[in-house]
Amino acid sequence: MSNRRFLLAASLLALLAGCATPSAPLSVADTLARDPQLSTLNALVQQAGLADMLRGAGPYTVFAPTNEAFAGVPAATMAELKDPARLKAVLSYHVLPARMVPADIKTVNARTANGAEVALARTGDFVTVEDALAQGHEVIASNGVVYAIDRVLMPPRR
What are the two backbone dihedrals, phi and then psi, of residue 32, each rounded to the nearest 5 degrees? Predict the structure, then answer.
């Protein structure tokens, strides 16, 4: 191939690459499914039948316990999650029916998708929900925001 043809082909490829559109953000449910650190939560979301809701219009803010967070839950508490109603109550306690990026988070109580309230706070770059600390930065989804957290939150019993 001559240099001229090579440069023409390279220029055409560069032009086509520049026209490619960036992929759209994933939904909250798909964000959970794609993150290997959140595989336990993702499996429980599927089991509870909440994935379709978290693919919906939203907006949602999900405080997503990591696999390590679930590993720290006592076995008796994990056994309680075999009850579908309890599982759904616990998981929906991690969901706010609002899109909250760190700039939106102040020291305030917020109502969760299960109707209970959680305490939110932000100090500098640190975001907390109840006694759980967000790990790293938030992930923006097409229908909300996901924060990986270091603990599983347990809602008050009604």
Answer: -60, -45
